[in-house]
Amino acid sequence: MACVGGKCMLTSQVRRLREAGMDAMDAGNLEQAETLLRQSVTLAENEAGLDVVTANASYRLALTLHKAGRHDEAAEEFEKALALARGRAGCGSKLYQTILGHFAAALPARATPDLACAVGE
After folding, report:
1. Counted domains in the chain
2. Which is the most buried residue in 56, 58, 73, 106, by most CB within 10 A?
3. What is the distance between the terminal CA atoms of the chain, rounded to a whole angstrom?
4. What is the distance between the alpha carbons of residues 3 and 45, in angstroms, rounded to a whole number?
5. Is residue 2 part of a domain?
6. Whole-angstrom Cα distance, residue 91 to residue 112?
């Protein structure tokens, strides 16, 4: 992939923050995980055309918020990640299905496929 306008470097920074956040979550440091993952989401959101990267970061932030017992915030991040994944990769994409599967496992009462997916858009 050719770098255009520094997007490769930006994507790499987002990925590093996301991975560090997941490492912190795995180590049980949810506060640090949330901080790193929020930075990852914010960095990705500030650049157009990084929907898949933003979806991945939001999805991982949702997992951390769920683990911290902050279910409403987690649901919001899951929903944002699903919308981004659907818009960029579609309802049948591996990314969309992975996010929806984890959302359903974490918060089954809140996790529903996007209406657009249900009607085949």
Report:
1. 1
2. 58
3. 29
4. 18
5. no
6. 12
pLDDT, tens digit (0-9, with 9 covering 90-100), for 41-84: 998 888 766 788 899 999 999 999 999 999 999 999 999 999 99
Residue 13, in any domain of the structure: yes
Give the model confidence (pLDDT) of 16-27 as tens digits. 999 999 999 999
| Structural domain includes residue 73 | yes
Here the CATH number for the domain that contains residue 99 is 1.25.40.10
Stated as kind and residue range, the H or E segment containing 10 is helix 7-26
Amino acid 67: pLDDT:
95
Q: How far is CA 14 from each of CA 82, 84, 99, 101, 112, rounded to the nearest angstrom? A: 18, 16, 18, 23, 28
Task: Evaluate whether residue 3 is within a structural domain.
Answer: no
Give the domain extent around 47. 8-114
